[in-house]
From TrEMBL:
SUPFAM superfamilies, sorted: PYP-like sensor domain (PAS domain)
Domain spans labelled PAS: 528-576
Domain of life: Eukaryota
Keyword Ion transport appears in the UniProt entry: no
Name of the molecule in the record: PAS domain-containing protein
TM region positions: 57-81, 88-116, 146-167, 188-205, 211-231, 243-259, 265-284, 814-834, 1003-1024, 1089-1112, 1280-1300
InterPro entries cross-referenced by the UniProt entry: PAS, PAS-like_dom_sf, Tiny_macrocysts_regulators, TPR_TmcB/C
Keywords: Membrane, Transmembrane, Transmembrane helix
Length: 1341
């Protein structure tokens, strides 16, 4: 009850939240909104919004639906591969699906609709919830709209399927708390309306509030009416709760509508609280009233089943009407066919009538296909469960299934015999095809195993099935050469000396030596056709196995009762209320000659697959001194037994269609009373004396509405009286005796199972001495007719050949595995080396740091010169000073990186500048002095002198000429040139390293090809050596077939004739006679193996070639251009800085502020105009480099745009890209240098500001070029790695899924050849295996 109350409260709260929104404008809404917010908490979307985790709630829903989908797919896969799913998986799937469909349905729809709404449009906040939930968090763009629509569809499908299938249709007591119900249509309607309300709530409610409330009232009002009218649940309480929820929603919506019209929030608040008890009582009384006014079945008979089902509920639950209810439901089904009708009939038969077979008959013909998932799933579930139950507990169903399985097994037996015969013929052809021989061997071995399994399962299920045991025993003796086991199966059922035991055998579906079985089809197209039968049946009616195909029941029914018999069968199938038709009825049938055969018949209906058929048992009544006939009440003879005319004294075949008085004048028909013995003296008319005294007995049997008059006649009065007594006992068996018999059969069955497992005698026969003698005679005959002159062991040479074949195939498997490992290892080794070298070449870490250091050094000269000029001219130099300080920090950083980067480029000769004192630099002491030092030391001195200049300037001390000298002449002079030269050499080293890698790559490719070729050659030579071993094996098979050909062929054809009614074909068997004169078999196994295994080496070579010649070539091209791209961009920045310095010096000319005037005693720099012109020309030459295709490929689209197309938010001169911006600066520099006039300081400042802006952007561009080109190469390397990973995985899979199964199949083929050798007899002189160990090895094979 707690579960039902909680669930309905949650659903009620989730529906009520749809009646309002945070932006309602009615009076006093803010005062009462807290109450409604508390009410809506059970809606999980509202709770998520309250705690500001609505996006996370959306992700949880996505994960939830994904898990359900994954579980469904997993269960479908398990179902497809016929594996039972784990219980925990089923429990998890059921729990998640239930929660999603019942509790999370409304919150999920609302959440998905909110995502759909806010993924388009300009919204600031989510309007559906209280609080400032940012709409951007629920905006997932256009993909969000598609995803939310799909997820909404998914949750609707899940819920609809759940509501259609996840309920129990079994009738329960109306006072129970079970949620069983007749159908899910009302629940589906509730979900549909809830979905519509959610969509309207998100998209319609705020703009059309009153219309929305009216729609809400109408929809839930209709649901309330449908709930009361159909009352789908069997429980009063559950119907009451469901009706209360819908009725409450409708009433609450009315309260909100009144409050909206009166513009006050008090009305919905007060009325909702006050009316809850009233609504509870009103709902409960309404449901009780509806239950009390359900009509009786007779009143609603002619109405649709949903209405009619209400009137029969209580009778379905209490079983009061017994079979009468089934008749009533059958009549309703004819008027209104409905699958639910059949379902309820089925459950009624199981639960109340305790007749599961009848229930199966009702449901088996009901289709579970189509779109009506409401009923189809319930039908499927009921069928599956009932079939399983009946197969375990119902003897009739077991017997029917036995006949079906026996027919299938017999077909497999027939197929095997033909296959075996064809194999023998194929094996002795002049040039047999290896492929066909392998096919035959595989099929023979597989069918042998299946046949044994099928026969043993049948015998285990029915130990007394003589026909099955006979066929299986014959198969083992004559075909499989298992003579001893076969004779055990050929043994008979234990004798039953106890009289009452024999009687009980005849009253159950058990096999006896003379019992006949047959199955009559109940399908409309083949109604009355005999589809299954046993050998006793065809022997009884005297027809052949070929003739019975197409045989109908009418042909064994006496002519008097044939008319309309199929109509009666059809009527019975449509209206039957009991599955048992006859139970040990004393009736008769017609044999093929037209004579009656007296018998005891039992018959019942069995549903299987899609039809209800009739299974019948016939126990012939054997009597030497008694005959019978079917007569009419006036003595007209319709049919009679074979000895009936002779018993009356007439030596004719038939006396049908005559009156009894005409044959025996002394008999008085009127004196023949049922169950009374009448004596009549038969006179000899010619001799005028009494010939004999006959005893007549009239029996009347009722079959339905038909009375059958049986006239029994015998000359032995004692026999007739014994017949009268025994017959009554036959038809009235004590239930206790049935239990005794069941116990007896169970113990016999257990003994049988034990004996089968232990491979000992199936039955311990203790029959009469005559029976034992007869069995011994039969066994002797079967021994003689089996492989009497044959031996079925493996010879020493055969065993040795089999072992060698398996050994060489196992070695082949190992060799192929080693070849695969070698190819993969070679591939991984090459990839590892290339990846390592590519990562090093792609890094350019030392090069980038050295480039940045060179740029910072050149910037230091420019910044310090600008600070010096500003200080000397009393101008504002603070901005230049700040730039200088920042640049000094960069210099410190890159100085510290010199030693850490050294190892990465120590292979290059130019790296000596880091640790060796090879760089010359000038120091102004008393005079300029040339010294040498390492790059690290010189950078340190530059930093030191720069700080000293800054310190002196801050003290207004201008005595820093020696410091300025050091910075200017070492940042632009020989020291700077050494650093540039090192950069050039480093680029050259990187390119040489890439070229070396390319060369090594070619060597590696050659080595890989050599390894591949060596592995392939080794494989080829080894495979060429295995032909001998495999051909010897096939030769032994052929010899064995040749030696036993005629005998086996004869036995196979004999079995086909005896058990499968196949007429023996006359084949030309002469071709095998000259077998000894032919050449031995020479199959080229190696060529087949080589053609298959060459795929491994082909793919290995292909993968090597693609990796090296395609992927690596792309990487190689990128690696060549990457250093050039980075160096060129750095070079343009540095040279632009030099141009600034030389332009400034050129404009200063011979003034006291120029370097030339400040340091007249020394000039290590070039003439400013010439130096500027050289730098300008150098920049122009870099344009061509940046236009090369290889360089452009290394640029990302964003980088290409910044260099060549446009840059936003910058000065006009550089807005079209750094390439054109630098061209503009080059033209400006040329104009300033070559205009032969002195430019103003303002012009120079503008030029310098442009240069600084360019340098700032150029740094960004350089960084982008470095990262983009590196990323492009890394992506190419990743592709190479992924490709090689795929190649290795592919090679592993092709070995595991193709080569390994193939070789295992070849080894398995050898094992199967062993099995074939063991069933083919050897009649020539052979040398058996000498030792026990050899025999053990053969058995292991």
């Amino acid at each position: 009850m707690f579960k039902i109350l909680t669930l309905n409260y949650i659903i009620l709260a989730q529906n009520i939240q749809l009646l309002w929104n945070p932006e309602l404008t009615i009076n006093s809404w803010d005062k009462y909104s807290k109450f409604w917010e508390i009410i809506r908490i059970p809606s999980f979307d509202a709770a998520a919004a309250k705690f500001n985790v609505l996006p996370q709630f959306f992700y949880v829903l996505v994960a939830d639906l994904g898990i359900i989908l994954a579980l469904i797919i997993s269960l479908c896969i398990l179902r497809f591969i016929k594996r039972k799913p784990p219980v925990i998986v089923l429990a998890i799937a059921r729990f998640i699906w239930t929660v999603t469909s019942e509790i999370v349905f409304i919150p999920a729809i609302i959440c998905f609709m909110i995502v759909f709404k806010y993924s388009s449009g300009n919204y600031v906040y989510v309007q559906e919830y209280v609080g400032e939930i940012i709409a951007e968090n629920m905006n997932f763009g256009s993909s969000g709209k598609i995803l939310s629509a799909f997820l909404c569809f998914l949750v609707i499908v899940y819920t609809f399927v759940y509501e259609s299938c996840a309920f129990d249709i079994k009738v329960e007591n109306e006072k129970s708390l079970n949620d069983s119900r007749l159908h899910g249509k009302v629940n589906i309607s509730i979900r549909i309306i809830s979905m519509l309300n959610c969509i309207l709530y998100v998209f319609f409610q705020k703009t059309n509030y009153e219309v929305y409330l009216i729609l809400f009232i109408v929809l839930h009002g209709l649901l309330s009416f449908g709930m009361v009218y159909y009352i789908p649940y069997y429980s009063i309480f559950v119907n009451f709760m469901q009706f209360f929820v819908q009725f409450n929603c409708s009433c609450t919506a009315i309260f909100f509508l009144i409050g909206d019209f009166l513009n006050t929030a008090q009305i919905p608040f007060i009325t909702t609280i006050i009316f809850q008890p009233i609504l509870l009582i009103l709902s409960y009384e309404t449901v009780l009233y509806r239950f009390s006014h359900i009509p009786e079945p007779c009143e609603s008979f002619g109405k649709p089943f949903e209405i009619y089902a209400l009137s029969i509920r209580k009778y379905l639950g209490n079983g009061e009407l017994k079979e009468g209810l089934i008749k009533s439901m059958n009549n309703n089904y004819k008027a209104y066919p409905n699958k639910l009708n059949r379902l309820l009939q089925t459950y009624y038969c199981i639960d109340e009538l305790k007749n599961p077979i009848l229930g199966l008959n009702k449901i088996i013909t009901t289709s579970h296909g189509g779109l009506d998932i409401f009923s189809n799933f319930q039908v499927y579930k009921c069928k599956s469960a009932l079939k399983t139950y009946c197969s375990e507990n119902c003897e009739g169903f077991k017997l029917y299934k036995y006949f079906v399985d026996f027919a299938l097994t017999k077909e497999k037996d027939h197929f095997f015999c033909n296959l075996y015969s064809n194999f023998l013929s194929k094996m002795l052809e002049k040039s047999p095809e290896l492929k066909k021989l392998k096919f035959f061997v595989k099929e023979l071995a597989q069918n042998m195993k299946k046949l044994k399994t099928n026969y043993e399962e049948l015998i285990t299920s029915f130990p007394s099935a003589f026909e099955t045991k006979e066929m299986y025993g014959s198969l083992l003796i004559h075909i499989f050469c298992e003579v001893e086991i076969g004779h055990k199966y050929m043994s008979k059922m234990p004798g039953s000396d106890n009289l009452h035991m024999k009687i009980m055998l005849k009253n159950n579906f058990n096999f006896t030596s003379d019992r006949c079985f047959f199955v009559v089809s109940g399908k409309e197209l083949t109604l009355g056709k005999i589809i299954y039968y046993n050998k006793n049946f065809i022997n009884l009616i005297g027809i052949s196995d070929e003739t019975i195909h197409g045989f109908y029941l009418d042909e064994i029914i006496p002519p008097l009762f044939r008319d309309g018999h199929n109509k009666h069968l059809k009527n019975f199938l449509e209206n039957h209320t009991n599955n048992i038709i006859f139970h040990t009825y004393s009736l008769c049938i017609l044999d093929a000659s037209g004579y009656l055969v007296e018998c005891i018949i039992s018959s019942e209906t069995i549903g299987y697959k899609s039809s209800v058929d009739f299974i019948c048992t016939i126990d012939p009544v054997k009597s030497k001194d008694k005959e019978m006939a079917i007569i009419t009440p006036n003595g007209y003879i319709w049919s009679h037994t074979k000895g009936f005319p002779l018993m009356l004294g007439f030596e004719v075949d038939f006396v049908e269609h005559k009156f009894l008085n005409s044959l025996i004048p002394d008999i008085d028909i009127e004196n023949l009373k049922p169950n009374q013995l009448v004596k009549v003296l038969i006179r000899d008319i010619e001799k005028k004396k009494f010939k004999k005294c006959l005893n007549f007995l009239l029996k009347i049997e009722k079959v339905g509405k038909v009375s059958i008059y049986f006239l029994y006649v015998s000359a032995d009065e004692a026999e007739m009286r014994r017949f009268m007594t025994d017959r009554n006992e036959d038809l009235n068996i004590d239930p206790n005796k049935s239990k005794i018999f069941a116990s007896y059969m169970q113990s016999n069955f257990e003994e049988f199972k034990t004996n089968v497992v232990k491979k000992v005698a199936i039955f311990d026969e203790r029959g009469s001495r005559a029976d034992i003698d007869k069995d011994n005679e039969m066994n002797e005959k079967s021994k003689i007719s089996s492989h009497s002159s044959s031996v079925t062991f493996l010879t020493f040479r055969e065993s040795l050949s089999l072992n060698k074949a398996i050994r060489v195939l196992n070695i082949t498997k190992l060799v192929l595995l080693i070849s695969t490992i070698v190819i993969i290892a070679s591939n991984i080794a090459i990839l590892s080396y290339i990846s390592k070298e590519v990562n090093h070449s792609n890094s350019l870490q030392a090069f980038n740091h050295l480039s940045s250091l060179a740029y910072a050094v050149s910037q230091m000269a420019l910044y310090m010169r600008m600070v010096d000029l500003g200080y000397q001219n009393s101008l504002d130099y603070q901005s230049d000073l700040n730039r200088t300080l920042n640049n000094l920090e960069l210099l410190k950083t890159y100085q510290n990186l010199l030693f850490s980067d050294y190892d990465s480029w120590s292979y290059c000769k130019s790296s000596k500048i880091i640790k060796k004192s090879v760089i010359p630099y000038w120091v102004l002491e008393n005079k300029p002095t040339l010294k040498t030092g390492t790059l690290h030391e010189i950078i340190g001195l530059l930093i030191q002198n720069a700080y000293e200049i800054i310190a002196k300037i801050e003290k207004n001390d201008n005595s820093y000429d020696d410091n300025l000298f050091f910075i200017i002449f070492n940042s632009l002079g020989s020291s700077f040139q050494q650093t540039n030269l090192a950069l050039k050499n480093l680029v050259t080293c990187e390119l040489n390293r890439v070229d070396k890698l390319s060369t090594i790559k070619n060597y590696l490719l050659i080595i890989a090809i050599v390894i591949l070729a060596a592995s392939a050659l080794f494989m080829v030579f080894y495979l060429l050596s295995i032909d001998k071993f495999l051909n010897i094996l096939w030769e032994y098979v052929r010899k064995r077939v040749h030696s036993g050909y005629f005998e086996v062929k004869h036995l196979v054809l004999e079995r086909l004739t005896q058990y499968h009614n196949e007429i023996e074909n006359t084949e030309n068997e002469s071709e095998h006679v000259d077998y000894k004169s032919k050449k031995e078999l020479k199959f080229w196994h190696s060529f087949m193996y080589i053609s298959r295994f060459s795929l491994l080496f082909f793919f290995g070579g292909l993968f090597f070639g693609v990796s090296i010649l395609v992927f690596y070539e792309n990487i190689h091209g990128y690696l060549i251009y990457r250093p050039t791209l980075v160096y060129t961009l750095m070079r343009r920045r540095i040279e632009m800085t030099e141009i600034c310095i030389y332009t400034l010096e050129y404009e200063l000319g011979n003034s006291t502020l120029s370097i030339k005037s400040r340091f007249p005693m020394f000039n290590d720099l070039k003439e400013p105009k010439q130096a500027a012109e050289n730098a300008l020309d150098s920049i122009v030459t870099t344009r061509k480099v940046l236009r090369e295709k290889g360089i452009i490929k290394l640029m990302s689209p964003e980088l290409f745009t910044k260099i060549y197309e446009r840059i936003s938010g910058v000065s006009t001169f550089i807005s079209l890209g750094t390439f054109r911006g630098l061209a503009f600066l080059v033209q400006e520099a040329r104009y300033i240098v070559f205009n032969n006039m002195s430019d103003s300081l303002e012009t120079l400042k503008i030029f310098f500001s442009h240069v600084l802006e360019y340098n700032s952007l150029s740094v960004t561009v350089s960084l982008s070029a470095n990262s983009d080109s590196k990323e492009i190469i890394e992506k190419q390397l990743s592709k190479l790695i992924y490709f090689n990973g795929f190649c290795c995985f592919f090679l592993c899979m092709i070995y595991l899924l193709y080569f390994y199964p193939f070789l295992c199949g070849e080894i398995d083929l050898v094992h199967k050849i062993t099995k074939i050798l063991m069933i083919i007899p050897q009649t020539i002189e052979v040398k058996p295996m000498k030792s026990r160990n050899e025999s053990t090895k053969a058995n292991k094979i």
